[in-house]
């Protein structure tokens, strides 16, 4: 299950990277999460004072394929580039009350 959590983290980062690219379409999605969904979750997984996940973030995660997101767990460069804390990202499904515990 730990590998699944890591994949979620990496997928969030990868989608953030794709979504922030100037050519990215507004309706693009990855693993069931839209660009807007990833943007809604970013304050909860980055920075020195992360916020609790918003309703928008949790809603986006509700529709996400968490196993698909776990696929990106090894994208360390993306994690660093977009300043995503993988430990915080792995906590989102639980903080959003989607699952009692979650690990990739």
Automatic annotation (TrEMBL):
Listed SUPFAM superfamilies: Bifunctional inhibitor/lipid-transfer protein/seed storage 2S albumin
Alphabetical UniProt keywords: Signal
InterPro entries: Bifun_inhib/LTP/seed_sf, Bifunc_inhib/LTP/seed_store, DIR1-like, NsLTP-like
Domain of life from the UniProt record: Eukaryota
GO MF entries: fatty acid binding
Signal peptide stretch: 1-25
Pfam families (UniProt xref): LTP_2
Organism: Eucalyptus grandis
Gene Ontology biological process: systemic acquired resistance
Residues covered by the Bifunctional inhibitor/plant lipid transfer protein/seed storage helical domain: 13-103
Protein name: Bifunctional inhibitor/plant lipid transfer protein/seed storage helical domain-containing protein
Listed Gene3D superfamilies: Plant lipid-transfer and hydrophobic proteins
